[in-house]
Design brief:
Elements lengths: L4 E5 L3 H13 L6 E6 L3 E3 L4 H5 L9 E3 L9 E11 L4 E6 L4 E5 L2 E4 L3 E3 L7 H4 E2 L4 H20 L5 H6 L1 E5 L3 H17 L12 E6 L10 H13 L2 E5 L3 E4 L3 E4 L4 E3 L2 E4 L3 E3 L16 E2 L12 E3 L4 E2 L16 H20 L12 E5 L5 E5 L4 E2 L1 H14 L3 H17 L16 H5 L7 H14 L1
Parallel strand pairs: 1-2, 1-8, 2-5, 8-20, 10-17, 11-12, 11-17, 12-13, 19-21
Antiparallel strand pairs: 3-4, 5-6, 6-7, 9-18, 14-15, 15-16, 22-23, 23-24
């Protein structure tokens, strides 16, 4: 008798936690486990701003999936681009471009999220994201390239002003940490450019919300705002981008900022894979799931992480869903694995509940704002808590060693501000890095599985 097939989509915090739990719980004869991911590493997303700023190397935050001694999961190098829940088939686009149909008995969807964009003229062509490892490495090259080109341009010229103008959109954690980290990069690098004056470099952080990082509370939000403004970053709240061009950005309040670097971090949206299921979604676009992480309308399908609106049973508000954070995703992965095992063995499933442990924000240097277990911290104590939390959350000893070594080396020796060659004549767009145009429509998925059933 064939073993049941468990397909896990996504190698983020949720997907990897699920696979590790399945490997430890199930015997080899109980099920076949497959993990669908384009890369054989787990990306530690919260540290991406430090990759972009050169504090950490890209390898430091790419935790290998092949180090585990218990490893017996088959890793399929590709991305899921469609699901037919009636036929129980997951359509996978391998990294070669080939489409394959993977039948499943149990499907765990943890495909994560993509950068949320809006229909803003020029955004698709000129916006840069901070959602993938390639984007972070590319952005570092791009910023250093702007300094190189500005140094070669005539003083006072429009080209020089636009190359030294940097705009980050999004006042959440990603945007705030990105602006803080990259401003430190340019501030430290300008000393190596004798023809540049630090006062020529302009950084703007823009967000449509009235407050910076409201989840931290007013006091810590103001503390983060003070840090950014003290460093010379202009923070504009209550406005957004009206138009993006190759050499400037127009804000909704009418201001036109010289800029050739627009970093877009204005929130995330559920993976486009969610739309292929034809299942109910919440206003956020995330799949509606029960407290045990099952998708109600799809037999054998579980969803979690950024792609699912998981009821927050430990929260204070009725009808609240868990925020898309790493601490929730990792714990949901373990519950999803336990419930898949329960479904296989015919035992009761359990609901997911977790009390949020707090938030940490590393602003680089000696600055940070954190709220661990509801305790508000700022400055060095907050940064120590933030880095300690991230270091402890890294999954392998090798990753912890690399990150700690990088932190120490950067603190002692600084940065050489070297471009690695990712910067090309063709700028990388959000679509290029996040592959949002690779997914099938629900009709294409059903037509494909129907044709395959007819051939059989």
């Amino acid at each position: 008798m064939a073993r049941p097939r468990i397909v896990v989509v996504g190698a983020g915090f949720a997907g990897v936690a699920c696979v590790r739990r399945l490997e430890r719980t199930l015997s080899p004869g109980e099920a076949e486990i497959m993990l669908v991911t384009p890369f054989s590493y787990q990306l530690y997303l919260p540290l991406l701003p430090q990759v972009a700023s050169g504090v950490l190397t890209p390898q430091s935050v790419a935790v290998s999936l092949r180090r585990s001694r218990r490893h017996r999961t088959r890793i399929v190098p590709g991305g899921a681009v469609g699901v037919d829940t009636r036929a129980k088939v997951c359509v996978i686009r391998k990294i070669t471009g080939e489409l394959v149909d993977q039948p499943y008995d149990h499907l765990v969807l943890a495909p994560g999220s993509v950068t949320r964009t809006f229909d803003i003229p020029g955004l698709a062509e000129h916006g840069r994201g901070m959602k993938t490892l390639a984007e972070a490495a590319y952005l570092r090259d791009h910023v250093i390239a702007q300094l190189d080109l500005a140094d070669a341009a005539a003083p006072g010229s429009p080209e020089r002003a636009s190359r030294l103008g940097f705009v980050v959109v999004g006042g959440g954690y990603a945007g705030t940490e990105t602006a803080a980290s990259l401003e430190r990069l340019t501030a430290n690098a300008v000393g190596r450019y004798p023809r540049l004056d630090r006062r020529e470099i302009s950084w703007h952080l823009v967000d449509v919300a009235p407050k910076l990082m409201p989840e931290l509370g007013d006091r810590l939000g103001r503390a983060a705002l003070d840090v950014l403004r003290r460093r010379g970053i202009e923070v504009s709240l209550g406005v957004s981008v009206a138009k993006a061009g190759p050499e400037d950005v127009t804000l909704t309040d009418g201001r036109v900022l010289p800029c050739r670097t627009l970093v877009w971090t204005a929130g995330v949206a559920a993976s486009p894979l969610v739309a292929t299921l034809g299942a109910e979604t919440a206003k956020s676009g995330r799949l509606v799931v029960a407290a045990d992480l099952r998708v109600p309308s799809a037999d054998g399908v579980f969803a979690l992480g950024d792609a699912a609106a998981v009821p927050d049973l430990a929260g204070d508000a009725d009808g609240a869903v868990c925020p898309p954070t790493a601490q929730h995703a990792e714990r949901q992965g373990k519950v999803a694995a336990d419930n898949v095992v329960a479904a296989l063995r015919g035992t009761p499933l359990r609901s997911y509940a977790h009390k949020d442990l707090g938030l940490v924000v590393d602003l680089g240097g000696r600055d940070g704002v954190s709220r661990p277990l509801g305790i508000g911290l700022r400055g060095m104590p907050a940064q120590a808590v933030a880095r300690g939390y991230h270091w402890a959350a890294l999954r392998t000893g090798a990753a912890k060693t690399r990150v700690l070594t990088n932190w120490l080396l950067n603190a002692v020796a600084g940065d050489d501000f070297v471009r690695t060659g990712f910067q090309t004549y063709k700028p990388g767009t959000l679509r290029d890095f996040e592959y949002t145009d690779q997914y099938l429509t629900p009709e294409e998925v059903r037509a494909r599985t129907a044709a395959a059933a007819g051939r059989n």
